[in-house]
Each structure stands twice: as structure tokens, then as C-alpha cells.
Amino acid sequence: MNGTDGWRWWTSAGGAALLVLPLAQDAPPAAVVAALAGPVVVCAWAWGTRRGRTAGVSGGAALIAALVATFAVSQWPRGAVIPPWVDWFVGWLLIGALGLAALVGDRLLSPIGGDPPASRRWTTSVTVLAALLLLSGCGLGLLATDGDGSLRFTARADEVLPLPTSLRLVSADTCTDGGSSGNCTAEFVVTATDGADRATTTARLVAHLRGRGWPLQPDARGYRGARETGGILAWTPHRMWLSTDTDGAVDTTVTVHVGNL
């Protein structure tokens, strides 16, 4: 590569830095793989465009800013349950589609006849980006939705955990009861670390959950509440309930259920 391509390398490096976003969240491997879409979008523009340094860097910076902003809007809590990585990934794919359209428009406005290296770069960039969008779009089409088109995700452990030192987790199952449309009910069994009775354990647990954003209110059988889900897509809310009815049992554990119906 000649010296005039330096800005392309720096712009590509900025795109590669987007991988830090899911890594900083200790995200699952799937999110890290999905984050490869960001560098591909930025690199495709950097190496495919015929624009000069100023316009090329500006376009790359705009793409990086849009990708970062989409991630931030998706994952910013705002008092709601944070959605899964699919939420920001859909936004990134839409930005990728805009990048592809920009490359096509760039080719139409700046013919590259007589410049084989530029032609090869454009063809490679468009092919890779188009393949990413096509394959990712097909994969997202396999996401489970309910019959009414609702999007759901299973409750995560961090919606309840970590517990305070006065409570101890006995068991946890993020999908103890569910169906075939993405609906799941998570179950967390909690007890007191100091052997306190069930009523005391329940009071401690309710105080802890309210502190984590769950607006639990008493009802005839215990406590119940719901939290909206954040993000860009329309995910179903998560609903929590726990029973104070002992049915004559002496068990001091309290079971928390979180559903996504």
C-alpha cells in the first residue's frame, strides 16, 4: 500500500476498536461475534470509497459515531431491563445497509474506470458487506417470536443478583417453565444466611429487589411487579412475583419468579 492509504488504515483501526463495547460488558461470545459487524461496516467504507482523505475520514467517523450511539441507546439502562445484544446488532445492520448504499452511490458518482486497484477494493468491500448483511439478516429471521409478533428474551441472573450478604442463593434456573415461542419463567430460590424465618427473608428480599428497580407491590398471595425493557426494539416487559403463602410449610426459602410473557 502507498502512503496515501494511511487514512484508510487509521479509519479501519477506529472501526476495530468497536469490539471493546461488548467486551466491556462481559458480553457472551455471540455478542462479540456480532460486534465484528461494526469493523466490517467501517472497513468496507474506508477501503471501498473513491473519496479523498477528508471525505473518506469524515464518512468513516460518521459511521463509527452512529454505531457507538446505537449501542449506547440500546444498552443504556434508564431504569429498565437491558435488552440482549440482538437489540443493538439490528441497529448496526441497518447502519451497514446505509454504508452499502453509500458505497454504491459513491461508485455511481465517481467512476473508477482505468483504476484497477480501486475497482478491486470497491468490489471486495461491497461483496463482503453485502454478504454480512444477507447472512445476518437470515439469522435474525430465525429469532423466536410469539404469535402476535412480540419479541422476548429470557430473564438474566443479574435482574435479581447479586444478593446482599444477609441472603443466599439456593438455586437458580433461567427457564424452569417455558414454551416454544421464546416465553420462559426464571426461578430463583433464596434463603437467609443467618437462619431467619421466612417472613424476615421475604422482607429482606423485597427490599433488595426494589433497590434493583423492581416496583414490587403486595397482593393477596405475596408481591408482584413488572419492569419495562429498554433498547431499540419492542421487547415484552419482564414480570416478577413471589409468594408469602407458606401453605403450612416450615421451609424458610423464598422463590422468586421472573417471566417474559
Describe the largest sheet.
Answer: 6 strands, antiparallel
Detail the poorly predicted runs. none
Task: Calculate the terminal CA-CA distance, rounded to whole Å.
Answer: 55 Å
The helix-strand sequence is HHHHHHHEEHEEEE
Helical content stands at 40-55%
Alpha-beta classification: alpha+beta
The helix count comes to: 8
Strand order of the largest sheet: 1-2-6-5-4-3
Number of domains: 2
What spatial form do the alpha-carbon principal axes imply? elongated
Highlighted features:
elongated, single chain, 261 residues, 6 strands
Protein architecture, described:
The chain folds into two domains: 3-140; 157-259, no CATH class. The mean pLDDT is 87. It has a six-stranded antiparallel beta sheet, covered by helices on one side. The protein is built from eight helices and six strands, in the order αααααααββαββββ. The chain is α+β, with helices and mostly antiparallel strands and 261 residues long. 46% of the residues lie in helices and 16% in strands. The relative contact order is 0.12.
